[in-house]
């Protein structure tokens, strides 16, 4: 949604103008109602049929929350455990029906040889995100962390358009107080400048970097019949960097768009590829999802309070759930399990007391992540095996024909000929793009660090305008954020 020309130039400007005009005239409640209406319109533009589902989810969870925070009337004799359990079942049931029905039917048909027709239901935009968000709201209310809510700020908290489609998975106490803060209803030039910078940076990462890196990823994962060593590594690195810039770009836009309205959406992505261990990587990658998994799944399962073996099982199970949350395929489940195993290995290593050189620690962390995302990108286990075979060199090594003088390498199985043929042939643009991406990812400050240092002036304005200009050139292409599929 965020890469569409209409969103940047036709939707966002008038919404900002009307919202701050209403607030400037003293109609703050009207401003909130307008922003809620704009958010619902934004959601309905994707698919009007699913707007009632979002409204149902908001109304039902608000009702469950009221029952938990101030039980009265018909709910007076209903235990809070029953209310929160009913609320969680309602949310998980909606998510399961719309996102996992066909996955369940496919596996049922496979297991029992049946031929039940698939339902072919398109998953509603953002249902994975607003489901987890509201489950967290119900659990926090049950735990006594939240008081009674009013409907308007709650509905705005759930549907706020910068984050409704792909997160972050914000918590009620992070967002609602900001909507109720009168000072945030006034236009803030500094927040506006930082917001525009982040939106521009996010668009550049998505449209210019991620989408172009995706060309080699698509060629390698989807089209190439076989991948020799170099082709496999270029394809996997292209996807790792594509995923990085795609998600980082979306996060920048979500935070930036929120800042335009003086709403600080929680950080969700902080240079994860610089991590020196796997636990650190997950504390930097999709931060709000990691927080949800820890607080609302891992700890309730027992966390690390029931012995080492149980801790390891809890880690793996939590990330299997994470994999399934990302998508209804066994590839995603396996990806989740591999991440749980990675965290388990990190924990076991930590207990040895041994120290590792930072460069080796970083290399092992990134390489293991790069290995796991093969499962995230491959459309089938067969394609994943194809890429894995190439990564370890089981399908040969091909060197450029100009290096044919190194004939002694032929004894090691190295062949000489057209280089990178399975990726469409030698293309220095994509090689340069991968190298430049690596320099930016591993060596540069991230967008949040840059925006925190931003002082509104002509230099920053020109830089922001340059990013917008380059991105606009690419806005004509059809593009979708990878995490929109999750």
State the main characteristics:
486 residues, mainly alpha, 2 domains, two-stranded parallel sheet, 2 strands
Structure description:
The chain is mostly helical and 486 residues long. It folds into two domains: 32-187, no CATH class; 191-485, no CATH class. 68% of the residues lie in helices and 2% in strands. It contains 19 helices and two strands. A two-stranded parallel ribbon has the order 1-2. The radius of gyration is 24 Å and the shape is globular. The mean pLDDT is 90.
**Major beta sheet summary:** 2 strands, parallel
Strand content: under 5%
Low-confidence stretches: none
The number of distinct structural domains comes to: 2
Given helix and strand content, the structural type is mainly alpha
| Radius of gyration, whole Å | 24 Å
- Distance linking N and C termini: 14 Å
Query: What's the shape?
Result: globular
Number of strands: 2
Q: Give the fraction of residues assigned to helices.
A: 55-70%
Total helical segments = 19
How are the strands of the biggest sheet laid out side by side?
1-2
């Amino acid at each position: 949604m965020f890469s569409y020309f209409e969103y940047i130039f036709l939707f966002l400007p008038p919404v900002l103008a009307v919202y701050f005009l209403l607030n400037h005239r003293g109609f703050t409640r009207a401003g909130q109602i307008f922003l809620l209406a704009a958010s619902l319109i934004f959601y309905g533009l994707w698919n009007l049929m699913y707007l009632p589902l979002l409204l149902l989810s908001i109304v039902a969870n608000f009702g469950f929350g009221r029952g938990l925070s101030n039980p009265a009337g018909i709910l007076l004799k209903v235990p809070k455990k029953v209310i929160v359990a009913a609320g969680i079942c309602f949310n998980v049931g909606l998510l399961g029906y719309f996102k996992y029905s066909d996955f369940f039917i496919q596996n049922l048909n496979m297991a029992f040889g049946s031929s039940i027709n698939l339902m072919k239901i398109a998953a509603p935009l953002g249902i994975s995100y607003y489901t987890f968000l509201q489950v967290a709201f119900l659990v926090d209310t049950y735990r006594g962390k939240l008081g009674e809510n009013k409907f308007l700020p709650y509905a705005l908290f759930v549907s706020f358009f910068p984050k409704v489609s792909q997160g972050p998975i914000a918590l009620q106490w992070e967002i609602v107080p900001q909507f109720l803060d009168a000072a945030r209803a006034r236009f803030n030039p500094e927040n506006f400048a930082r917001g525009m910078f982040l939106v521009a940076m996010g668009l550049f990462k998505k449209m210019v970097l991620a989408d172009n890196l995706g060309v080699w990823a698509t060629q390698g994962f989807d089209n190439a019949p076989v991948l020799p060593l170099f082709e496999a590594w270029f394809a996997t690195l292209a996807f790792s960097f594509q995923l990085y810039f795609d998600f980082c770009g979306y996060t920048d836009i979500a935070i930036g768009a929120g800042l335009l309205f003086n709403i600080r959406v929680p950080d969700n992505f902080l240079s994860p590829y610089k991590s020196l261990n796997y636990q650190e990587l997950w504390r930097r990658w999709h931060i709000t999802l990691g927080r949800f998994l820890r607080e609302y799944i891992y700890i309730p399962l027992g966390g690390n309070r029931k012995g080492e073996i149980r801790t390891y099982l809890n880690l793996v199970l939590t990330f299997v759930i994470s994999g399934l949350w990302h998508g209804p395929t066994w590839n995603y489940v396996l990806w989740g399990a591999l991440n749980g195993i990675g965290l388990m290995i990190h924990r076991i290593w930590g207990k040895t007391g041994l120290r590792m050189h930072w460069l080796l620690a970083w290399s092992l962390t990134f390489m293991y992540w790069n290995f796991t995302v093969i499962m995230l990108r491959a459309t089938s286990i067969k394609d994943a095996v194809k890429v894995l075979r190439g990564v370890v060199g089981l399908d040969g090594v091909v060197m450029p024909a100009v290096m044919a003088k190194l004939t002694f390498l032929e004894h090691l199985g190295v062949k000489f000929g057209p280089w990178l043929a399975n990726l469409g042939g030698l293309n220095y643009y994509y090689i340069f793009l991968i190298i430049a991406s690596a320099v930016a990812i591993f060596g540069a400050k991230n967008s949040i660090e840059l925006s925190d240092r931003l002082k509104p002036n002509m230099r920053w304005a020109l830089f922001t305008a340059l990013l917008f200009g380059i991105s606009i050139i690419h806005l004509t292409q059809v593009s979708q954020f990878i995490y929109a599929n999750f």
